[in-house]
């Protein structure tokens, strides 16, 4: 998803980074991200959500034939690689991982249809299991995005997975097109800053519309110019095939995997391609595999508005009146951005700052503070939050995660909605959310506008007949990947494969924030205990 995927994408790494970095002073004291703990009382979602307790009946999707790997077999030069694990270097941001972490790189085919041809690096980081005698195998993590660097995030978040690390080697990776795995680069810092400052994400005039589409087209052209070799090969399907090669090189008979947010799409794709090689897989904060570009935008419009409504209820404000208050602030910023030093808080940056606080209920007091400041003409708090989301440091340097995010998303999706189609969505989307609707409607056209590479398909495949049970965890107040996506994923995986676990709470993702979900997932990974379909926490 898009420029709002940039802003509202399936971005579990935000929750992880906010938890890890809250102590740096960027966030106000006590504001770390994450959902409300299970077992406590949570605000009811603004839209009714049913929580099934029995698996869905088998459907045609369940009966799809296995997507056996029909491409040429990988040569022994790849499957027989021996990794050279070395002390990790410091990432572009954050401290150098401790000596218990080791880094290596696997060679994977640039094009899996030509496995004897060119290769690219696939970066890994690993901490070996504490209990060598009780070791189960390797457990691979993907934190979402798409575009999140597992090599950078996993060591920072490792404490959350310490129990799993007793019996698993914890393994993070950079998917192809990300970070150290032939990472895509599309713009320099100056170009990115200029775009943020000048491009209106909800164009109101013909000139603003032309500038919006021109900027998005220029972004894609920059990717093609700077990353021409890897750009056509950044699909989720290709990364899923990379994971199967990594599984072999690590010496595991089956893949054990923890996917969060976009990582659930990657995991579903792996399960579809290699159902017989599925070990213990958990999907948390689940992407709906049945949704197309417009469907995803519609889901996120509903999801973010639902989270905003729950926030407004928590402070005693009527959701309709509170949403209109925030929408008025955004309209005012569209006309007159607030000056913050030598920068400006625009409507788009303000929305980014608002959205990031909705990733976890414990951030809601920060949203109250940021909105109050902006309404009094002080935009620094919202701008700082937007910078945090956009990975912009104090010196004006941006990470390239958003570059990788768009490259992967546009390689995956074959849809290219037009500006006319986006404009036609605005009345509906504004009705769903006066705050987020117009942004997400326009985003359907802007994100992959005139993209230089054709996309692979409309929606991903996730059916995995014959695979071992996969835990599918959905949170009822999740803004970025609404709960309904977990229901759809469990159904698509197939009868006896997808096992739905419901977390009644707020925030993007449940593991580590809901004690009940954490206990359920740990029992599955460590003991192989499969919960009953429809198990509910909270």
Automatic annotation (TrEMBL):
GO MF term set: hydrolase activity
A UniProt-annotated Pfam family: Abhydrolase_4
Domain of life where this protein originates: Bacteria
Keyword Signal part of the UniProt annotation: yes
Signal peptide segment: none
Region Disordered: start-end pairs: 35-65
Ranges where the Peptidase S33 tripeptidyl aminopeptidase-like C-terminal domain occurs: 433-537
Keywords recorded for this protein, A-Z: Hydrolase, Signal
Record's compositionally biased regions (Low complexity): 41-52
Record InterPro entries: AB_hydrolase_fold, Pept_S33_TAP-like_C, Serine_prot/Carboxylest_S33
Family of this protein: Belongs to the peptidase S33 family.
Protein name: Peptidase
UniProt source species: Streptomyces gardneri
């Amino acid at each position: 998803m898009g420029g709002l995927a940039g802003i509202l994408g399936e971005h579990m790494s935000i929750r992880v980074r906010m938890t890890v970095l809250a102590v740096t002073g960027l966030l106000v004291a006590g504001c770390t991200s994450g959902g409300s703990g299970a077992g406590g009382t949570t605000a009811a979602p603004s839209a009714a959500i049913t929580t099934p307790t029995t698996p869905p009946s088998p459907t045609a999707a369940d009966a799809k034939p296995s997507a056996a790997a029909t491409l040429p077999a990988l040569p022994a030069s790849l499957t027989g690689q021996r990794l050279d694990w070395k002390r990790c270097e410091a990432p572009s941001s954050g401290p150098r991982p401790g000596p218990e972490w080791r880094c290596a790189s696997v060679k994977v085919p640039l094009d899996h249809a030509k496995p004897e041809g060119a290769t690219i690096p696939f970066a890994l980081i690993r901490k070996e299991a504490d209990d060598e005698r009780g070791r189960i195998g390797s457990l691979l993590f993907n934190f979402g995005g798409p575009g999140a660097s597992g090599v950078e995030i996993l060591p920072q978040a490792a404490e959350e997975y310490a129990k799993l690390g007793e019996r698993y080697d914890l393994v993070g990776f950079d998917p192809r097109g990300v970070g150290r795995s032939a990472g895509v680069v599309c713009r320099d810092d100056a170009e990115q800053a200029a775009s943020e400052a000048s491009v209106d994400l909800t164009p109101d005039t013909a000139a603003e519309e032309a500038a919006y589409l021109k900027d998005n087209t220029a972004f894609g052209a920059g990717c093609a110019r700077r990353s021409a070799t890897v750009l056509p090969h950044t699909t989720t399907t290709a990364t899923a095939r990379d994971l199967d090669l990594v599984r072999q090189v690590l010496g595991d008979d089956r893949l054990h995997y923890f996917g969060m947010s976009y990582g659930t799409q990657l995991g579903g794709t792996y399960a579809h391609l290699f159902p017989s090689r599925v070990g213990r897989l958990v999907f948390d904060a689940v992407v709906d595999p049945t949704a197309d570009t417009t469907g995803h935008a519609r889901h996120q419009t509903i999801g973010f508005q639902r989270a905003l409504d729950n926030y407004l209820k928590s402070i005693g404000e009527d959701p309709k009146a509170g949403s209109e208050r925030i929408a008025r602030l955004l309209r005012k910023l569209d006309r007159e951005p607030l000056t913050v030093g030598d920068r400006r808080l625009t409507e788009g940056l303000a929305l980014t700052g608002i959205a990031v606080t909705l990733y976890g209920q414990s951030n809601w007091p920060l949203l109250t503070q940021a909105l109050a400041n902006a309404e009094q003409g002080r935009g620094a708090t919202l701008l700082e939050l937007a910078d945090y989301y956009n990975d912009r440091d104090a010196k004006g340097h941006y990470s390239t995660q958003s570059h990788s995010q768009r490259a992967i998303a546009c390689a995956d999706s074959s849809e290219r909605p037009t500006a006319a189609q986006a404009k036609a969505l605005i009345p509906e989307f504004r009705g769903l959310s006066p705050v987020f609707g117009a942004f997400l409607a326009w985003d359907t056209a802007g994100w992959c506008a005139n993209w230089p590479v054709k996309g692979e398909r409309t929606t991903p495949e996730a059916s995995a007949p014959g695979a071992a049970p996969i835990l599918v965890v959905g949170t009822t107040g999740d803004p970025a990947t609404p709960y309904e996506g977990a229901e759809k994923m469990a159904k698509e995986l197939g009868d006896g494969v997808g096992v739905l676990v419901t977390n009644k709470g707020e925030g993007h993702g449940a593991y580590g924030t809901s004690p009940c979900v954490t206990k359920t997932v740990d029992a599955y990974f460590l003991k192989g205990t499969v919960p009953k379909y429809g198990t509910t926490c909270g």
